[in-house]
Input
Amino acid sequence: MQQTLFITGAGRRLGKVLAEFGLAQGHRVIAHYHSHCELDPHPNLICLQADLADPASVQRLANEVNALGPVDRFIHNASCFVPDNKADDLSVHFDRHFHVHVLAPALLVEAMPWAPHAAMTAISDIYADIPNQRFAVYCASKAALQNWSLSMAQRLAGKVRVNVIQPGPIQFLPEHDDAYRQKVLSQSLIPHELGYDAIVQACEYLHTSPAVTGTVMRVDGGRFVANRYDQTFLSL
Output
């Protein structure tokens, strides 16, 4: 049976992989993107642009999604990841992170036309529980997303199951050199790159398990419990 899957931040990286998986499963996919979308055209794919840091743009996106009918699955994957020392204006820095990570999903959920037995997954971060001083605002906003999501599990109980995924070092970026990669992987119990498929599998489990809601699932290769977390890191 075809379902409707709505994903924020689906234009590239993890969001793109999640969207492609949904299409491969035969679902209709509503893919939000910010600046550009790398998804190939598909008859079951609807791409919608919005700046999640702008509440007016989010409200427009919410109206567009509402007009498309009931949503079976919602993944809030969109993210803002900027170190504090790169911020020119602290207020703007705070606003952008908290708008993207918390206000945007709140506005979308408020207007969401949920299908029966719907499920929502918020992509948080292990930083939500183990803060990093270089990314204090990012960490705080991801912690807020996680807390808000668990509140939504309570508020939407019986209507929508809501869960959280905390990714760890899943997929490195091209700018991460070998030394950085080895340093990060040495701090995990599974010392190799897990790939985006690890998150896809976790989302699919949470979306299809009718008894699971209000859960925070770590998909981090055991980094959280390795207890060798280095907060210095190389500059991005």
Q: What stands out?
A: Strands lie at 4-8, 28-33, 45-49, 71-76, 114-123, 160-167, 216-219. Helices lie at 13-24, 55-67, 90-111, 136-155, 178-185, 197-208, 223-226. The radius of gyration is 17 Å. The chain has a mean pLDDT of 92.
